[in-house]
Amino acid sequence: MITPEISWLAILPELGLALGAAAVLLVEVQWKPRAQVLGMVVAGALTIALAFTVVQWIRAQDAVAGAGQLGDLVAFSRMILMDGFAVFGRFALLVTTAIGITAGWRLIEGLGRRRAEALALILLASAGFSIMVSANNLVMVFLGLEVGSIALYVLAGMTRSSSTSDEAALKYFLLGSFASAIFIYGVALIYAGTGQFEILAIRSFFSAFIVTSPGVILIGIALMIVGLGFKVSAAPFHAWAPDVYQGAPAGFVGYMAAVAKIAGFAAIARILITGLGDLEVNWLPVVAGISALSMVGGSLLALVQADIRRMLAYSSVATAGFVMTGVVGGATSGVLFYVAVYALQLVGSFAVVAAVSGPANSASSMDEYQGLATRSPGLAAGFTILLLGMAGLPLTSGFVAKFGVFSDAWSAGYQWLVIVAVLASVLAFAVYLRVVVNMYMSDAEGPTLEVPDTARWVLMIAAAATIIWGILPGSLLDLASSAFPL
Amino acid sequence: MLTWLILLPVLAAIIVSLVPSRRSELHLSLGIALAVLPLALAGYVFWAFEPVSGYQFIEDVTWYAPWGIGWTLGIDGISLPMVVLTTLLVPIALGASTSIEKRRKEFVVYTLLLEAGMIGVFLALDLFIFFVFFEAILIPMYFIIGIWGSDRRVYAAVKFFIYTAFGSALMLAGIIALAFTHAEQFGSLSFALSDLMRLDLPIGAERWLFAAFALAFAIKVPLFPVHTWLPDAHTEAPTAGSVLLAGVLLKLGTYGLLRFNLSLFPEASVDAVWIMGILAVVGIVYGAVVAIVQPDLKRLVAYSSVSHLGFIVLGTFAFTSGAMQGAVIQNVNHGITTGALFLLVGMLYERRHTKLISEFGGIQKSMPVFAGFFLFMAFASIGLPGLNGFVGEFLVLIGAYATLPVLAVIAASGVVLAAIYLLWAYERVFTGVPEKPENQNLADLSTREVALLAPLAALVLVIGLYPNVLLDKIAPSAEAVLDHVVEASGLVIPEPGRLADVFVTDGEGE
Amino acid sequence: MTELVWLVIALPLAGAGFLHFAGKYLREPLAGWLASAAIGGSFVVAAVAAVPFIQGGEHGTAVSLWDWMPAIGASMEILWDPLSALMALVVTGVGSLIHIFAIGYMHGDERFHRFFTYLNLFAASMLTLVLAGNYAMLFLGWELVGLCSYLLIGFWFTRPTAAAAAKKAFIVNRIGDLGLMVGLMLVFTTFGTLSYTGIFERAGDELTSGLATAIGLLFLVGAAGKSAQVPLYVWLPDAMEGPTPVSALIHAATMVTAGVYLVARSASIFELSTVAQVTVATVGAATAIWAASIALAQRDIKRVLAYSTVSQLGYMFLAVGATAYVAGIFHLMTHAFFKALLFLGAGSVIHAMNDEQDMYKMGGLLKKMPVTAVTMGIATLAIAGIPPLAGFWSKDEILGSAFERGGWFSVLWIVGLVTALLTAFYMTRQWVLVFLGQPRWDEGIEPHESPRVMTAPLVILAVLSVFGGLINTPLRLTLEHFLEPAFELVKLQHPPEGVGMFILLAGLSVLAGLAGAAAAYLAYNRSSDEWRGFEGGFEPLWGAWEKAYGVDDIYGRVIVAPGKRAAEAAAFQFDIPIIDGAVNGLGRVFRDLGEWARPIQTGYVRNYGALFLAGTIVVVIWLVAGGA
Amino acid sequence: MVEPILFVLMSMAALAGAVTVVAARNPVYSAMGLLGTLFSVAVLYVLQLAHLVAAVQVIVYAGAVLTLFLFVIMLIGVDKEEHWEEPLRYQRSFVAGMAGVVVLMAAGLTFFTDFDWVPAAVGGTDPSRTIGTVQAIAEPMFTDWVLAFEATALLLTIAAAGAIALAHYRRRPH
Amino acid sequence: MIVGAEWYMTVAAALFLIGAFGLLLRRNALIMFMCIELMLNAVNLTLIAAGRALNDLGGQVAVFFILVVAAAEVVVGLAIIVAIFRRRTTASVDELSELRG
């Protein structure tokens, strides 16, 4: 009798999310309750998922410390891993999800009866990305990626209050599918070259064999980089990002962008650094090139945007480049720290955007922010902290994050990339300062904004995290550095 | 102790921010009252500081061990005067801000945060911490210029921010490089200045790193030709902003050159003497020449800063004891005099809402006390002996002559040019018959305004006549920097009085 | 007593400080008397402290006060030796008289107390200069007197001309100071200290003549600025915009002599360089005759005196250049007496004439103000070098020394002699124009003798002008003996010895003085038409003199205007468009790059796909090519 | 001898179908081209002994997916010929350029490098293992790959929920 | 005679490229979507050929999952297309270019 190898602990968080999604849908069908009830169901699912994630973390740390078997961290016939890296990524995803839902709560409420679908899709997307960060098998990565992405395509087109929302959804969908196809083709070629889908096995393969003419493997690596580069919106695979960020409902964009970045970078780091570390001489220059192009191009384009959401989109392109310097540096901790803090900042920023220009709206001109500091000082202050954090000013977590990845890249011998990066950071300052200028330095008067409490909470958490991890980064940095992949 | 120096302003900022916005009358007075606390503490540190070389009141707490970052603070004779100056200027700057009506609370908060950052820069002995503070102060200053400035404030604020951030960007890369060099040579990352000073850098790398640091500091100073952010920032900034900008922020550049470039890259520093020296001297002359014809009083003072700070850079790179002490004390002097000049211009602006020289004339008639203070500070700035500006510039010039005679002589012409631009401006603003009706009945300085200026004026005199009050504490530390450079680079510093070393026999061949 | 010599500086300084803060609460004359008392007290202290030198045998002592700039060996210290004592006595003595005079002169001025604040501050500064024990402190005094000069010239700040003159004086002085400062750099680098005692004792051993020349010439630049020598004299005539007591004190008796004092004080350095000596003397002689010729044609009563001062300072430079230091200092002293007297007299006249300064609008004042007329007459004779008045002895010693030195100095001697003639001419012209002839003054002016408080100083100065020269006659060289300890390190130039030579030389100069005086009397003791015709006879030379050779104009066109144009070009054609333009341009480049790249995001999803695929192909090729 | 002939034929058919998808002006023809490709590829699967996959390809793809496509084509009424002009400037020349580069790269790889398609066989030695019978596929599918199999449940849930969310459309949502 | 895996993979690569270029050439969203299906088929063919050459069933198993993904994509994709069509009555992606810059 052949039985499947089941490790419940490894999938309990995802299971919690999936069951939560199902519960939301069922509760909605059955009782058509108020939004708060659905919210509580979702909160329950997330709490359970987070709780099990903590348990996983303890297990992973114990295993590393010698209290358990490292083999325990490999589950489901080597399909997924429970190593610190995966758990950290999952935890970040779950927190981002919770905050993202809070930030988009007003939008969800406004969706009427479709709110259950929205909540279910969010939970499922998170489950998918959660699989992606923990997958050891490239097909699993692909599945997780698709689960997450398809859900996001739907979320992008969910409100359909304006024609741009349609446009965003279709563009996201077409290009996303294109990228997925390219990614899975890369996986197929890697499989053809190595006979393996498993990242750890691929690593063993390359440490055991020296492939003299790696042919398909190199093309496979290239295609995987491209496919994942799309997900994290690295240039030149970023073209979807501005349009989707602008067109999709503001209440969701922060969440969508943040989870895709977390999962995408987790996958990139695991595949490239863990799986293909022995071939880094081949892929490092390419990733460095993508990184540089993203940083410079993203910043330049962000500089000239008149719409804040496009600006944030291009700046996220630049951020993808910055995070990628950490990939070049070959240290996963820097990447994890960066995406974790950036995810919070992104969600918080879009909470502000949703508060200022309406959660379902897709136009959010910079001009709307004029005089925000007098109209809604708290909002402006919080947003400023987030913007400075994204810019990477000292005393914010963004600075620590940048410093970390730049250091890694420097130690990896990519000095030129660090220099490009620091100069691109200056461009990024200019980008974010424009918003601050609008908020603080224009005397435009206007009615006081009515800001939903949920947005306030999100902003407060995000801003506080930005400051606290900027001043005392040790706690999170320690976590990130003990969250290395197997 | 030193941590409290940084924390006190932060706490003050928090306290002020907790006062409800509608109690706007409280914010400023509360801010001033709280800003006196760091001043008192700094005063105590000054009093307790032993006049010997090396850092004192050292605090060293690991911040993040894996990166080798420590909360390492210490104070020596070079940073001590700057800290005291900072704590002194902040309450004065706040006191000069009564005319700020809009969003006063924020203003006070930003100013106090700025103070914390500035003190942090001077105290940091860990390059990471240093960089954090160095960059962080851009934010409050950016807001101060951008929110409470005059017409082109946004342009000036953004330019200030981006320009200086651009400079420090490469320094960040340099800091990372140093830390990793430390990891290569000693096995662990470290950002501590004392650790990094032990590095054995190849000369090529040392030059590149020197350049990266020097660019950051040169922009901050600002050195010709990267100075143009300064006139804009000064002109647009509110009075308090200008005072702190001129008084302290610019000194971060000269302080950085002295503290970091010289200590970390002694050999490259010696190699760069001519570049830095020529830039400094060009700045001295050029800043002064350009200042002469400025139509705006604040721009004029701003360009004069370019000129004055050239002396400090020249003194730093002259590598003689006198010049180095002169550079350090000139840091303080320029802060006091130029800070006071900006205060004065600000007071004038509050009365007339213009800073254009052509708008004035003959106002000594209606504002004799004001005119007196202005003239006093102008002469301090010109470098009149007996006032503080002279001590620094004279030490620099006399000291620099031994090693850089040509540059020192050209630099000396700056003192003539200073007289030209300041006295010409004084003539146009204060003398003659007040023809414009709005100039005829200007109110003279109030008691509050006199109280703001008086301590600065007193310091101008005290330092001018008895600079030992500072030089005693500066000298050992300055000597230590010099010794380090000499030791590391094998530089031979000609001793004054040893004619053969310094004076190449002239054409007469005797 | 020597230990308390710092009181000499401290008393007027305290006076200034007190008046600065409390002056406005004092009623009018009180402030003046207080200031006078301060400087008078200073005189008394100086006199008492100088007693040991008069008794002889004392070399002087250094009194150290406090460290100033230890890194360059500069401290606050006083060198109390015969030279500084003499200077201090002249400054405080003449200064006291002028203070007292000013009480009357400044009567009614709304900033009366401020004036005395400045006067006292000036006295303190000047005393700092002369009592300094090292060059740094000398420089301190040197600059502070410049400051006071600035404040006092521009005292009536509502007059644009006064303000401009003040600024001009300070800036021109500063140009000279630049030379002094560079000289000090050289001195410090050479000796490692700025202290007189350290320098002068070692100068002979450690200074090459090249260096001595360099230092000497640089000091000369500084001295020329302060003492209004060619080509930096242009500020002094303009400085007459200040109240007349200021002209008397600062721009005749004391401050302007600082250059002479500097050279005399640095005698040990000049001793080592003939080039420097000759240059100093030549500059002095040139200044003497240049300014004297200008003085010939001036109409403004104070301008005549101003150019006369320049000219007389030239004499002193001639003396110290010829290493006849005692003669130079002697002339400095006598000149202080009679030139102060002349200025005060002129002030008295101006006071009486309701601020009229044009001599062509005076005349016949002898009867209206006899004391002024007589005292000024005495001063005129003294400056003209008529024996046995003070000027005769000192001027004659200078000329004699130059003659004795021989060589190039003989030429300078002739120049000096001609200058003596011119001096006698223009001074007599002035006296005649003011006090003799028909009244030419405007309607409504009622000239009257000045009050006692003003005439008393005139009388005292007149007495000094008459007898002051007697302290150093060839018969009895009191002053020379007094000063000897201060110059023991150098070789002093003396006039030729022997009664015959003396009579010959003195006769020549007296002849020149008498000739000049007689010519002026004859030319000007006539109707105004006649002397105007006489002046017209010298055209175009007279016009050039009257316009002071147009030097101000030339400076304006050659230096000031191009300088301003250059500054404007630097500020508005270079700094803003080019330097700042580059910065803003760089910013714009990035914006433009962004704008340029924006159209890539066309909005067409198929374009995005093409971009995506292109990127993919590049990445594939890059990786494959890198791996192959 | 059957395999090479079938391979050549079916490859040609697959590519021809693919070209038809791209080139046909009528979407219905494109769909038919896709159908041809799917069938041809299914045959190629069979040639590679992947019998179950081939069957599923026919059932799921040709049977369900393609029907769905056709249904939508009819539903939204785009079953007419499209204009052949390219409205986007440079798009075609850019694509042609890229195609050229790809061809050049392929040629370069083939002729100038020892480019390996399949460098190493790491599976077992028993060739019968790879016969894709139902049982052979089912065994790994429900043991080693069971988690992936479960994950597809998420996918399908999303598809269902997403389709409802998107299609649930009111003219004015607010 | 056995045709080597490389031949199958070459055909797959050609198929993939035709799909990729087709996506860029057609403006009908439906046909673009078909092109993506072509690409996924190419991937499947690659996996199966490689699995056969490697003597490994993993390739064939993976194909199943890709099939499922493709199916799910089709459902959502067609839903999006239909939804858009309701509003705009067009399936041409070129008319969706409001978001740009």
Summarize it.
The complex is a heteropentamer of chains A (486), B (510), C (628), D (174) and E (101). With 510 residues, chain B is mainly α.
What does this entry look like structurally?
The complex is a heteropentamer of chains A (486), B (510), C (628), D (174) and E (101). Chain A has one domain (8-481). In chain A, 77% of the residues lie in helices and 1% in strands. Chain A has 20 helices and two strands. Chain A has a two-stranded antiparallel ribbon with strand order 1-2. The mean pLDDT of chain A is 90. Chain B is mainly α and 510 residues long. Chain B folds into two domains: 1-264, no CATH class; 272-510, no CATH class. Helix content of chain B is 73%, strand content 3%. Chain B has 22 helices and two strands. Chain B has a two-stranded antiparallel ribbon. In chain B, helix 2 (24-48) packs parallel to helix 4, helix 6 (138-148) packs antiparallel against helix 7 and helix 9 (203-220) runs antiparallel to helix 11 (239-264). The termini of chain B are far apart. Mean pLDDT of chain B is 89; it is low at 499-510. Chain D is an all-alpha fold. Chain D has a single domain (2-168), classed as Four Helix Bundle (Hemerythrin (Met), subunit A) (Up-down Bundle). Chain D has helices at residues 2-23, 27-47, 51-76, 91-112, 134-142, 146-167. In chain D, 34% of the residues are buried. Chain E is elongated, with a radius of gyration of 17 Å. The model of chain E has no long low-confidence stretch (mean pLDDT 88). Chain E has 101 residues and is mainly α. The N and C termini of chain E lie far apart (56 Å). Chain E has a single domain, classed as Helix Hairpins (Orthogonal Bundle). Chain E contains three helices and no strands. Chains in contact: A-B, A-C, A-D, A-E, B-C, C-D, C-E, D-E. At the A-E interface, helix 6, helix 7 and helix 10 of A face helix 1, helix 2 and helix 3 of E.
Task: State the main characteristics.
heteropentamer, A: 486 residues, mainly alpha, two-stranded antiparallel sheet, 20 helices, 1% strand, E: 101 residues, Helix Hairpins, 3 helices, 0% strand
Give the topology.
The complex is a heteropentamer of chains A (486), B (510), C (628), D (174) and E (101).
Chain B: H1 2-18, H2 24-48, E1 56-64, E2 69-75, H3 79-95, H4 104-123, H5 127-136, H6 138-148, H7 153-186, H8 193-196, H9 203-220, H10 229-236, H11 239-264, H12 266-271, H13 273-292, H14 297-316, H15 321-352, H16 368-382, H17 388-403, H18 405-430, H19 437-440, H20 447-465, H21 468-489, H22 499-502
Antiparallel strand pairs in B: 1-2
Helix pairs in contact in B: 1-2, 1-4, 2-3, 2-4, 3-4, 3-11, 3-15, 4-5, 4-6, 4-11, 5-7, 6-7, 7-9, 7-10, 9-11, 10-11, 10-14, 11-14, 11-15, 11-21, 13-14, 13-18, 14-15, 14-17, 14-18, 15-16, 15-17, 15-20, 15-21, 16-18, 17-18, 17-20
Chain C: H1 6-22, H2 28-55, E1 61-69, E2 74-80, H3 82-105, H4 112-131, H5 135-153, H6 160-191, H7 196-206, H8 209-226, H9 235-238, H10 244-253, H11 258-265, H12 267-270, H13 274-296, H14 301-321, H15 325-352, H16 370-384, H17 390-405, H18 408-435, H19 452-467, E3 472-473, E4 476-477, H20 478-483, H21 499-524, H22 528-536, H23 541-546, H24 551-597, H25 605-627
Antiparallel strand pairs in C: 1-2, 3-4
Helix pairs in contact in C: 1-2, 1-4, 2-3, 2-4, 3-4, 3-10, 3-15, 3-19, 4-5, 5-6, 5-10, 6-8, 8-11, 8-13, 10-15, 11-14, 13-14, 13-18, 14-15, 14-17, 14-18, 15-16, 15-17, 15-19, 16-18, 16-19, 17-18, 17-21, 18-21
Chain D: H1 2-23, H2 27-47, H3 51-76, H4 91-112, H5 134-142, H6 146-167
Helix pairs in contact in D: 1-2, 2-3
